[in-house]
Amino acid sequence: MDDIDAWVWWLIGAAGLGIALVVTAMPELGMLALGAVAGAVTAGLGGGVVLQVVVFAVVSVALIAVVRPIAARHRTQRPQLATGIDALKGKHAVVLERVDGSGGRIKLNGEVWSARALDGGQAYEVGQEVDVVDIEGATAIVM
């Protein structure tokens, strides 16, 4: 074991952390693996064991301190581009068949949708423009 250079051990450690990252899907292990690669580079450049461990610790902690908050922020943000039903909410539609609390038909984004009024007592006549408030199944709720 004395004939294997220290940088090889660091790379073996980085590979082990990389495998653990893939198996567990814990991004922190990837950051530790990058710290191990930095330790390998330090060993390859002739740094002592203490310097290698310090570089490993500093790089790993720095990556965790910087990357984790950014990842957490991205995880909680809603997508900026609305898709699916979320993209239809707030759109304008034209009434094709009288829409009231029990139903009707509208033309929304070039498609014919069944619709009903948000307020059951309200009715919208043919040709009138309405706003889509929500989508419930295949029915647009309009006002």
Automatic annotation (TrEMBL):
Coiled coil: none annotated. This is NfeD-like C-terminal domain-containing protein. Keywords: Membrane, Transmembrane, Transmembrane helix. The chain crosses the membrane at residues 7-26, 32-65. InterPro entries: Membrane_assoc_protease (IPR052165), NA-bd_OB-fold (IPR012340), NfeD-like_C (IPR002810). It is a multi-pass membrane protein. Residues 86-142 form the NfeD-like C-terminal domain. Its main location: membrane. It comes from Streptomyces graminofaciens. It is found in: Membrane.
